[in-house]
Every structure is written in C-alpha cells, then in structure tokens.
Amino acid sequence: DRAIKQLPDMFRDTDTVEYRARQITEKLALSLQASILVQNGNALISDSFIQARLGDGSGHVYGILPTGIDCKAIIERSNL
Fold it and tell me: Are the beta carbons of 4 and 29 closer than 8 angstroms?
C-alpha cells in the first residue's frame, strides 16, 4: 500500500519526470507484481516479495533479500 501511495508524488514534479522515468516505471512494475501476488498467491511469497522489492532497504540486485525471509519455505514450495 505504501508503494502505491508514493506513486502520485512521483508524478507531481513534472520538471524532472523524464529523468525519473525509469525509477517510476520500476516502482509501477514492482507494485503491479506485488498486487498480483497478494491477490493470487501465497502470503509467504507475496510478503517476501514486498519486503525484498518494495520495503525499506530493498535491494536492486537480483537475489538480495533482507534478513528474516523464510528462504527454506520458499524453496520447498517451489519443489511442489
């Protein structure tokens, strides 16, 4: 929810919107992915995605995860 609420602010500064276009696109894409996971997915998966990609200190490099994510449960679920 917090990421979605930040989006209107990203569009307000029209003087620099072109410089921030990739950042805005990234935030939109991640927010849409999170929305789909929340609506259709497992809470463990959606919560982990939101924490890793939209949370404070989220990493921009594939594979960076914050501490506390139950990686073992995610891996076990993928083997179903």
Answer: no
The pTM (predicted TM-score) of the whole model is 0.77
Q: Is 49 exposed, middle or buried (0-12, 13-18, 19+ CB in 10 A)?
A: buried
CA dihedral 70, 56, 10, 31 (to 10 degrees): 10
pLDDT (tens digit, 9 = 90+) per residue, 13-60? 889 889 889 988 988 999 999 999 999 988 999 999 999 888 877 766
What are the residue ranges spanned by the domains of the chain?
2-78
Q: Which of 49, 44, 37, 51 lies closest to 72, judged by CA?
A: 44
